[in-house]
Amino acid sequence: MLNSKYPANEPGATVLVAVNGEIVYNKAYGMANLELDVPMQPHMIFQLASITKQFTAISILMLMEDGKLDLNDEVTAYIPDYPTNDHTITIRNLLTHTSGITRSITQKPWNSNIRKSDFKLEEFIDYFKNEPIEFKPGTTFRYNNFGYLILAYIIEKVSGMTYPEFIKENIFKPLNMVNSYSLNNSAMIKNRAYGYQKKGNFINKEYTSSILATGAGSLMSTVEDLFIWNRALKSNKLVRRQTLKLAYKNYEQVDGRKTNYGFGFFLDEINGSPTIEHAGGDYGFRTNAIYLPEEDVFVAVFTNCSCNDPKTISTKMAALAIDKPYKISNTVFVENEDLYKWVGLYRFDDGTKRSVIFEDNQLYSSRLGNRSKLLPPSKSSFALENGIMSIHFEMKGDSIEATFKNRIKNTRAIKAFRKYSEIKLEEEVLKRYVGVFKLFPNFEITITLRDNGLYARGTGQNPIEIFPWSETEFFFKSMDSQIKFEADENGNYRTLVLTQDGKRYPGKKKPGE
Fold this sequence. Notes:
Shape: globular
Helix content: 10-25%
Strand content: 25-35%
Number of helices: 11
CATH topology of the largest domain: Beta-lactamase
Largest sheet: 8 strands, antiparallel, barrel
Oligomer: single chain
């Protein structure tokens, strides 16, 4: 499995499997640096991305045990001017992703460049804190990086240390995690694997500020050091057993629905065996770590390309390690017209989006640029090739409902209604939208036509294909944004309207275009 997923001449992975506290498998695959032809080694260092959250959560619990904070403390106890809109937002809400605070830095159009800005921690909190509360705290689980950034700030306020200092002095040093660090883009770190993205070809990962990931995705480590962390938690070296149970509790929303999340850990299962786990993803890196407490099995897979998510393969490895292996379903033949009717962009009830694409007589599922074939056990149910997920489609009047669930894990299914269905337009229709549209003084969207498809490129961004769902309206498959072209009284399409996060941003075509 690993040789196939991580070829020797591409970005690679490090892998560790431990059973009953003993490492039984620890290998490396692929390349650590493509430009210098450096092979991957098992001890190489990766960005942990969101696996960082469990370190933040345990740090909060350590401070709680020391009597320096309470989980029911309100955010305003540490950030007095934080606008809660008359809601009560507690540390517990932040830990469980039930705070209701905004979770996006895309409230301004295509503002991904903000991730390259080296704010101070409190400056970045000031940047996003005035966005509206998205829901009443406690009523909804919605995964939120900003909540963990606020937790990092609370750690700093309470401890009198920076977040990197606190983690180093209270976790890395005591546990002898000698190959673990806080993310630093400029520091020379021996054995650091270089990160890649794939946009047709492999490219070096985009620069992002390490400050903006503080507490949510700002740590670096090896699979071996993460195993040390796992054993330290199991043996209660950092927090007491009863305290650790708080992190591993499956928290509920106020309506009683379970969130499948504790403090910094997802809680799941593989064929009836409970798991404590978390994945991570950032530009250039993907990570996943799974612990099965009943079998005392630990699995970690880190990869240095954001194109190659290890979550599926690490789950398969864990299933093999507990002797509950993955099994492939039989498939049936489905006519093209029965495949094509499921095409469109779906938005699921957990906030994720997934596109279903039809190409070369084959359905594909696409999310965040990662595409997988959909193999049909029936005309309306599909399994992701080499994956652990399945999608079932059902007609609901004029709409289509998609139910997406694990085929190994017994987690609750998530549902979506199709938002947009792609149609075909003639090239002559597409040509009338080509041009440069100015939305703000320093922000333009350039529309180009190639290979009978339209592409939109924002200032400082790469081109992204947009797909028609009417003659004048287009949607992105990679994000929940839309573009509409509007004609003037002469029938010329000189206005573009970008809709993003429910807000509309009109732009006028530049003269001469």
